[in-house]
Amino acid sequence: xxxxxxxxxxxxxxxxxxxxxxxxxxxxxxxxxxxxxxxxxxxxxxxxxxxxxxxxxxxxxxxxxxxxxxxxxxxxxxxxxxxxxxxxxxxxxxxxxxxxxxxxxxxxxxxxxxxxxxxx
Length: 120
Prior knowledge:
Strand order of the largest sheet: 1-3-2
Number of strands: 3
Number of helices: 5
Helix content: over 70%
Structural class: mainly alpha
Radius of gyration: 24 Å
Largest sheet: 3 strands, antiparallel
């Protein structure tokens, strides 16, 4: 359970940043060097390396250095665990909102009955 939670934390932390999500979108279309990514996102090479490192730690990106060029590709890891966690919580909140809707409808009906009995 702890390993599972740590993995979720790492993945969601990596996905929490708009630049890192943009890098993943970019790499979904084609591999790119860190230099290309830095230029595309108007960042320094050091800044982009840090973003790529976080994505690598989450298993979302892999890099390979050939000569002086480090090329980034999408990682092999898929997001099944994260999707399952999101779905579980979506179902939980959906059930809670359904229960709340039922309570509101019950209170509205009760209010109408009380209003009619006061008029009588």
